[in-house]
Amino acid sequence: MVYVIAIYISDNSGQTTAVIIPIEEWNILREKHPDVDVIEGELHQWLKKLIDSRLNIAEKFPEKLHPIEGLIDELNREDHRDIGGIVKRI
Fold this sequence. Notes:
A hairpin with a 5-residue loop joins strand 1 and strand 2. By secondary structure, this protein is an alpha+beta fold. The protein has helices at residues 23-32, 45-60, 68-76; strands at 3-10, 16-20, 85-89. It is extended. The chain has one domain. A three-stranded antiparallel β-sheet has the order 2-1-3, with no helix packed on it.
C-alpha cells in the first residue's frame, strides 16, 4: 500500500487551482513521464492575466511578501501538521 500526501490549493470560491506533492513523488512522475514538465506553446490568456495580477500585487505591497521558510515552519508546527494535507491511497 502506498500513500501520497497532496496539498490542494483553492481559490476564494473553493475551486481547486493547484496541487502540491512531495518532490520524491514528482521525481517518480518525471521518470515515468519525462515530458510532464514541458509546456508547449503559449500560456492560456487567463493564466497570463492571473500571473500578471499576482505580480502587480507583489509590486504594490512588497511588505506582504514573506520567505517560504516561514510558511514551512508554520506548517511543520505540531498543531498545524494536517492543514491542507490529504492522504490519498493509490
